[in-house]
Amino acid sequence: MTIPPKKSAFLHALRMLEITHFILHGPMQYVKQLFLIGLLSAVLACKTDKTAALADSDWTLTHVEEKGKKLEVPAGAQINLAFIDGKAMGRSACNDYSSDYVQDHSKLSLFEVYATEKYCEYGNWEANYFRLLGAVEKVELKENNLTLKGKDDSKLYFTKRTIETLMGAQSGGKMQELLALFPELPANNRHLFSILDGSKYEQFPFVGEEMPRQFYDLLDETAGSIITQGGGAYIIGKIGKQCLMRIPGNVGVNSLAIFQEKDGKFNLLLPVAFAGKDPYRQQDAWLEDLNGDGRLDLITRLVGEDSTGKTDKLVAYLQKEDGGIDRYRGQLTASKYVMQSI
């Protein structure tokens, strides 16, 4: 029978105490024995800490290194690795995952990774993380920092999760779950309109699936108030980072608005399309990069009729880097933005 390393070391220590019994003499014998027991126990404790360092620990990935290149984890991607009950598990930006692992002092092996299959914008990061995780051979632990080293000299750097980082990760993971509910809208269909026919307000193209109320705490204050008063929000889809929802409100059940994640909150950018019949008004919107900065801008057109007569307004808003919007000062061609069945 093979004796486990910890038991073998302990039996060796007992044997050393038996030998010492014949060496130590005089009235200090008992004190010296206690001192030796304490010293050997400390040595054994150090050995135990090395072999069990990863058990019951939880870590957040900060960056990776591969071929001399350092890559920081994107701000919106939460990736963690926990070692619990013989499993390596965690959240990999888009999905939950787990794997069996074996640790022998500084050697570490992870086996096949099993993960859920949800899509999110950090899919490439997740795939790279799983690839590097599968190549891990060694582990290095220094206080609150963990480094996993791969056979190809790749490295994954983690920090220990505290109450603060756990709260942040929970919020980030919840946001990723919400964003994953939005299907990608066709890139060639960026005309957003609230009704199919200008005379039939009850027939609207974007119905959507109701957003679960468990995500309401992620809404910014303005959006939260509007959605609560309107009785819900309905997920339509997304283009890039912009998410489209139908928000029943005081204008009608067909009102559309664009949201975007910023600083851990789901922020209302702009109501973009709605229709009402008292007084008559209809608004359409188009998503287009007007100034070539890589961000989709918003072009809105409103037609209406009230006591003062008819109105037709064409206005555009530029999205800024910080998530805000600026009024567009350039010229817009009305014939380019034809409204839906007005």
What is the strand and helix layout of this fold?
Layout: H1 5-21, H2 29-51, E1 57-66, E2 69-72, E3 80-84, E4 87-91, E5 96-104, E6 107-110, E7 114-115, H3 123-134, E8 136-142, E9 145-150, E10 155-160, H4 163-179, E11 191-193, E12 209-210, H5 221-230, E13 234-239, E14 242-246, E15 256-262, E16 265-277, E17 280-288, E18 297-306, E19 309-319, E20 325-327
Helix pairs in contact: 1-2
In short:
The chain is an alpha+beta fold. It contains 5 helices and 20 strands.
List keywords for this structure.
alpha+beta, ten-stranded antiparallel sheet, 342 residues, 5 helices, Lipocalin, single chain, elongated, disordered N terminus
Largest sheet: 10 strands, antiparallel
Q: Please compute the radius of gyration using only Cα atoms.
A: 30 Å
The secondary structure category is: alpha+beta
Q: How many DSSP helices?
A: 5
Approximate shape: elongated
Q: Low-confidence segments, ≥5 residues, pLDDT <50?
A: 1-52
Total number of domains: 2
What is the β-strand count? Answer: 20
**How helical, in percent, are the residues?**
10-25%
Whole-Å distance between the termini?
86 Å
- Estimate the strand proportion: 35-45%
User: Element order, helices and strands?
Assistant: HHEEEEEEEHEEEHEEHEEEEEEEE
Average pLDDT, rounded to a whole number, is 79
